[in-house]
Amino acid sequence: MKSPGQELFDYVGYQSELMGYDTYDHLPMESENASYPFIQIGDYDIVPVPNKSAIGAQVNLTVNVWGNQDERLVVDTMANSLLMVVSTRFKTEHFRFRGMLSGSSVQILLDTSIPETTLFHAIVQMKFRLI
Q: pTM here?
């Protein structure tokens, strides 16, 4: 059985693909010839939240959107489309999640870490609660 974090990771990746976005579970290698823009489903962490009758959890997931220097609007649109996944309740194979729009965020950065290249990088922080 998958962990809640892995099921959420898979679910958000699937939703990204349904939106028509090229989606990876890792940063694409040069040999993969990925074109911009693309989504990279990133890291997650699980924070146990005990209550009277069970142990629940908050699951935080980071999603990265990458685009070239001419795609700021596209990167922004993709990031905010993915953020809307947080506004829903849904069920995966073994768990139920409720998105927490409060506490989720989108940040867009200018990335110049590759010489002579300018990229836009959106970091989407998503918070969910197991219900």
A: 0.93
